[in-house]
Structure formats: C-alpha cells, structure tokens
Amino acid sequence: MKNEKIKSLLISFLWISLIIMTVAFIGGSFLFIFDAINGKVTLSILFKKIFVAIVLLGYAVLMYILLGIANSFKESAFVRANVKRFNYIGYIFFIEALVQAIYSSIVIPGLGLFEIFGINVTIEVVSLAIISLTFFFIADVFDKAIKIKEVNDLTI
Predict the structure, then answer these.
(1) CA-to-CA dists, residue 107 to 28, 103, 116, 130, angstroms
(2) Among 18, 20, 50, which Cα is nearest to 32's?
(3) Which of 22, 62, 70, 148 is the 20 to 30 Å CA partner of 33?
C-alpha cells in the first residue's frame, strides 16, 4: 500500500516534469525565433539556446522513457522493452555528457578538470558519463535476469 502511494507520487512527478520541460522547450523556441527576427541573437546566445534546447529535449525524452518503465512494473519489470529503455536512458546521458563537454569547451575553455583533444572535461561531464554507464549496467543486469527467468520458465 505504501509503495503504491510512493510510485503514484513519482509517476505524477514524472508527468509534471515532462509537461514543464515540453512547455519550456516550446516556449523557449518561440522566444528564440522572436529574438532572431528582431536581430537580438548573438553567437554566444545562439550556443546557449542550442545547449538549453538539447538538454531540455533530452530530459523530456528521459521522463517519457521513465514513465514507460514505471508503467511496465504493473505486470513484470523484467521484460525486453525495459532493457531497451535502460539502454536509451544510457544513450541520453551519454549524449548530454558530449553536449556539456562541447558547450563548456566553447563557452568556458580551459576551466574544466582537464582537456582531451581540446575538449573541456568538467565535473558535470564526468558525472553524466558515470550515470550513462550505470544505466548501461542496469540494462545488462535486466537482460541477464530475463535470460535466467526464461530458462527457469522452460524447466518448470
């Protein structure tokens, strides 16, 4: 009973976050177009807006995927679709890490932890990369669990 309330609260939070990010993405796009028409866009603002748009879009897709995972728990969490979903989340965080690295290399070069081939590696980049790897490992664990479940189903 208590777990159902918490899960319901988390699903509501995911829906609200998805709606807010989608509205922010669309609203920011319209504001950017309005500023571009009025000639108020500089190269720095362009990079910042593209960065924010990619981040918002990535996290909106992430919320949508998490909703799919939450809905799959009604039957069984260990399904092939969740393996794909966890892999997608890993890819999203990896792309976010690359975008963060490129953005910080353009906007604040030389202020990261270190540089590799001119790419600024910040603490955010490292954190996002670790989160990405974590979701790839979770996908692998789910895949192995599904295989064990299939073998057990065949032996019964």
Answers:
(1) 20, 6, 16, 23
(2) 50
(3) 62
Q: How is the chain split into domains, by residue range?
A: 1-74, 76-156
pLDDT band at 88 (very low <50, low <70, confident <90, very high): very high
d(CA 125, CA 37): 34
For the record, the structure tokens of 22 come out as 């989608």
This prediction has a pTM of: 0.80
Upper half-sphere CA count for residue 14 (Cβ side, 13 Å):
17
Q: What is the dihedral of CA 72, 140, 61, 33, to 10 degrees?
A: -170
Q: Where are the alpha helices (DSSP H) in the chain?
A: 2-37, 43-72, 80-107, 123-155
Residue 18 Cα distances to 13, 88, 142, angstroms: 8, 17, 25
Q: What token pair was written down for 87?
A: 């892999």
pLDDT tens sequence across 12-71:
888 898 888 888 888 888 888 888 888 887 877 788 888 888 888 888 888 889 888 888
**Partners of 83 in the beta sheet?**
none
